[in-house]
Amino acid sequence: MVKDTTQITKFRSERSNELVIACCVEKHFISAVIYDVGLSRRYARAARFGITLNYEDVVDSANELILRLMRESGVRGNCVRSIGFAAQGGFAIMLEEGFDPVELFLPPDIEVVFLPVMSLTMGSEPTAVLASAMKEPGSVLAASFGHGLRAASCTESGVKFGYIPMKGGIDGSALETGMPLEIGAIDQMSREPDGTICYSVIGDGDGIGVSAPAAVQAVRIMLDTGALDRDGIMTDRDLFYIGEDHYISQQDVRAVQSDKAACRAALERLGNLTGYHERVIISGEAFGSEQGAAAMAQLGAVPRGLGERYGWSRNPAEQGLIMCLTDPELLRRVTELCDSAVDISAMIHDGFDDLYIKNLAF
Question: What is the C-alpha separation between 73 and 13, in angstroms, rounded?
């Protein structure tokens, strides 16, 4: 994982005085978005990565990022109508207990929204992902892959959800030079007929690290060229270099391999337990680009029959949280669904190990 990095992006020069702030918190990543309700568009965004949060510092870390975003984008506290949080695991509970808007120089009576939690292991981040998937009618399966699988199935009979731990190979956190799909990330890779490895970097600067989609594409290239066997062992080198400064190691390959198998096994178990869905949304760093999503399907991370019809996205939690902050009816619906949601994690685990081992080879 790359070193601690914070990036601020201002999308617009003009804004209204009707703003909301959406903050999403994961173990190795925090983002905050200022959304302009009056003009219906994003105004600015901050992202911090290359970190490992714990329960003691999650509130301070979120506050610091939001304060810096407001300061560098020129937003005063009295322009913010509401602020909301979606977080993984127990971070959601810590934020709800420890957040104080006064520390951000926001009005003490500002509306603060903590998305409902399905369970302590799930947190509220999957709730935001589900909210973003509910903008269209019909049954939907929303599966978010990161340092663990957090999935929710929404049908006429209600919501079922489950959690499976993962190693971090397909969110970039377990890669030696890994990073999320932010500015400076190597995001696409290809091999020319003469053997030259080409890659692209997000933004105009030099590469900072390797994203999960690029790592998955690198594994695909190594398999195609014989540099990696079907058991996941690098045959003729210890490191697969991407340019001069970045590489994929044997340890990285193992992390991708393990998470690929876990991804496939979990999706198969979810399909068996929840039945057919009109829409399937698979999100996460490895699914954050068209090339990454295609490479994941080619490596066998997606069950047959699903690879042709699933939708992919990198981080729908941000948009889902914004939608809940600007649409009270959607927030009410999501809250009601979470209150009656059924945990099927134990049922997913039943038979999971056999499927995991079956799908471990490339």
Answer: 9
